[in-house]
Design brief:
The structure holds two protein chains of two kinds.
Chain A: E1 2-7, H1 16-31, E2 36-41, H2 46-54, E3 57-63, H3 73-86, E4 89-95, H4 98-111, E5 114-119, E6 129-135, E7 140-146, E8 151-155, E9 170-174, E10 186-192, E11 204-208, H5 219-228, E12 231-234, H6 236-240, E13 261-265, H7 271-277, E14 282-287, H8 294-297, E15 300-303, H9 306-320
Parallel strand pairs in A: 1-2, 1-4, 2-3, 3-9, 4-8, 5-8, 11-12, 11-13, 13-14, 14-15
Antiparallel strand pairs in A: 6-7
Helix pairs in contact in A: 3-4, 5-9
Chain B: E1 2-6, E2 9-11, E3 33-35, H1 37-51, E4 59-65, H2 71-80, E5 84-88, H3 95-108, E6 113-117, H4 128-136, E7 140-150, E8 153-160, E9 163-168, E10 173-177, H5 190-196, E11 201-204, E12 213-219, E13 228-229, H6 235-245
Helix pairs in contact in B: 2-5, 3-4
The chains are: A alpha/beta, B alpha/beta.
Chain lengths: ~325, ~250
């Protein structure tokens, strides 16, 4: 019996989302009177692995194998499925990020386990096992029953508070053999963004819409983001026009984000845009149109021209956050 | 080379979502149904590849799991340019069941590339493409934002945290597709709409499969607190509120 949690690393480091996952797995394990076991694949040192213990993992299984240096969906899901069986996992927890989405459905078939994806709360009940998940692109949430003996949950980012513990944990380094036959993915090239705060990791996001009128007007958006240590984002028309790269597009068909603070500048707030940001803890809107739907989603708002309002906001941030 | 695009039938993205009494079923009154946005982009890209003779793509088929009520959505896909369609006659409620049905389709007919949208805008599962590939023992690549074919080799771009990777996998494979794959969804022209009427839709009966999950209730998100307006002349107050009241900066 256990709750198994897959903990992805980035160049040997975990992120806040990893600790959210482990906190979630530990709490779920507590409900089931069992413990959480974390699985790490890749080169991660003991000090970093220990952090998983401080968020509630009792056992940390660390696997290093150079064949697993690139993400091959089949190889990863086969390995995690085997570990889930060995550990007698009742629940397997993964992130709802790109990696989790790549592995979880394959794992579901291997373990014949139903999945709740994009879950944002602890199980609502254990019998039947019911999860709370996002549906209709954030316009509704569903209580979904998972009927299989083994359950898989993918957790929405920034939806679960970190819980620290001083309980002890053990690190188990395991050797695994990876059948070369199963590896099908060849990576020919990698392009990484460097020195930028990633939109999906950011606690604060400053986002511009068509109301900015021209790509030449983006300097204050970037400046405000820098002053706040925030990531920059944009609405769909802006990325479609090529004013900003499509990686910045937040909304239903772009990135779905849930920062603590989302500042929407010159964004009217179409349903499709709100679908990507509605899980933000706070939304601030700056818009010339007082009837724009973004103000219905926002907790704080300024009616005014962004180019006139933003310099004052930037100056205030610089002054007050000294 | 043959491409299969799996399509889902979803409420138009501007729909105000309501549920029937009991909150366990969508109120479909007045809803306009459309091709799931990511599936529509996949279809667009598949057709672009077919239009380019150098790719060797000979046909684009769409597959859909749904009742007869979703035929207008299939016809739309045919009008946009798909050559033919397969519909498995079953209401889609559980991802595992849907993937099982699509796997049956793929056991009967070979395709080189299978495209699935990264999620459907109704259940937001991100599950069917990955499940399907595992059921068939095929490789899968997820979060695909680009697909190109040169000299018979299919090259995919996948999004990773903070970047992109250019990858290849042997065919047949499943690509789970997201934004970026095509710029704008292709729109049906009048000629396409006329031609779609005579294009074949093959109907298959579902195979036996149990649902692994079931939605028992829907609820609407909690309403947010009303917007508090700050005077445009006093942006400092906004920053103070964010620091001291919301405590988010």
């Amino acid at each position: 019996m256990s709750v198994l949690v897959f903990t992805e690393n980035w160049d040997g480091r975990f992120k806040k989302l990893t600790f959210e996952l482990v906190s979630y797995a530990a709490k779920t394990a507590e409900m089931l009177n069992t413990t959480a076991t974390a699985v790490s694949i890749g080169k991660v040192d003991d000090a970093e692995l220990k952090k998983l213990g401080s968020y509630g993992a009792k056992k940390i299984i660390a696997i290093e194998n150079e064949k697993l240096n690139i993400l091959d969906n089949q190889a990863y899901s086969a390995l995690i499925a085997d570990l889930a069986k060995e550990e007698g996992a009742q629940v397997v927890v993964l992130s709802n990020n790109n990696t989790g989405k790549a592995i979880a459905p394959r794992l579901s078939v291997r373990l014949k386990a139903g999945i709740g994806s994009g879950v944002s709360r602890l199980p609502l009940s254990l019998e039947p096992f019911t999860v709370y998940k996002r549906t209709y692109s954030g316009n509704a949430f569903a209580h979904q029953v998972i009927k299989t003996p083994v359950k898989i949950v993918t957790l929405a980012q920034n939806s679960f508070d970190l819980t620290e513990t001083s309980d002890s944990s053990v690190i188990e380094r395991r050797q695994v053999t990876v059948d070369g036959e199963i590896l099908k993915t060849t990576v020919k090239d990698v392009q990484k963004q460097t020195g930028k705060i990633l939109l999906t990791d950011a606690d604060v996001v400053v986002s511009g819409g068509r109301g900015m009128k021209s790509p030449d007007n983006w300097a204050p958006i970037v400046e405000l983001a820098q002053a706040l240590g925030a990531a920059t984002a944009c609405s769909r028309p802006v990325s479609d026009e090529g004013w900003r790269p499509h990686e910045e597009h937040t909304g239903q068909t772009g990135k779905i984000i849930a920062p603590n603070l989302y500042i929407a500048v010159g964004i009217s707030g179409a349903t499709q845009h709100l679908a990507g940001i509605s899980s933000s803890k706070y939304i601030v809107a700056i818009n010339t149109d007082k009837d724009a739907p973004i103000f219905e989603a926002a907790q704080y708002g300024i009616v005014g021209d962004a180019m006139k309002v933003l310099p004052g906001v930037i100056a205030a941030v610089k002054e007050l956050r000294k | 080379m043959k491409i299969l695009v799996c399509i889902s039938n979803v409420p138009d993205t501007t729909t105000k979502i309501k549920f029937l009494e009991g909150n366990n079923k969508l109120d479909t009154a007045g809803i306009q149904w459309v091709i799931n946005p990511w599936d529509e982009l996949s279809l667009t890209r598949a057709l672009e590849l077919k239009d380019d003779a150098s790719t060797g793509v000979k046909s684009v088929t769409v597959a859909h799991v749904g009742s007869a009520a979703s035929e207008p959505t299939i016809r739309k896909a045919l009008a946009i340019g798909a050559d033919d369609a397969i519909r498995v006659n079953m209401d889609a409620t559980d991802a595992y069941n849907v993937a099982t049905q699509l796997a049956e389709v793929l056991k009967k007919e070979q395709f080189d590339i299978v495209l699935c949208g990264i999620e459907s805008s109704d259940y937001n599962g991100s599950l069917v493409g990955g499940m399907l590939s595992e059921m068939l023992g095929m490789p899968s690549v997820s979060a695909v934002s680009g697909i190109n074919i040169a000299n018979g080799e299919v090259v995919l771009t996948r999004e990773i945290d903070g970047g992109k990777e250019v990858v290849t996998v042997p065919s047949p494979f499943v690509a789970v597709v997201q934004k970026g794959i095509a710029k704008e969804p292709r729109i049906a022209a009048m000629r396409g709409i006329m031609m779609a009427r005579t294009k074949p839709i093959k109907i298959c009966e579902p195979v036996e499969c149990e649902n692994l999950t079931e939605i028992v209730t829907f609820e609407k998100p909690e309403p947010r607190a009303k917007c508090r307006f700050v005077d445009a002349e006093n942006p400092k107050q906004l920053v103070e509120l964010l620091m001291n009241e919301a405590k988010v900066i």
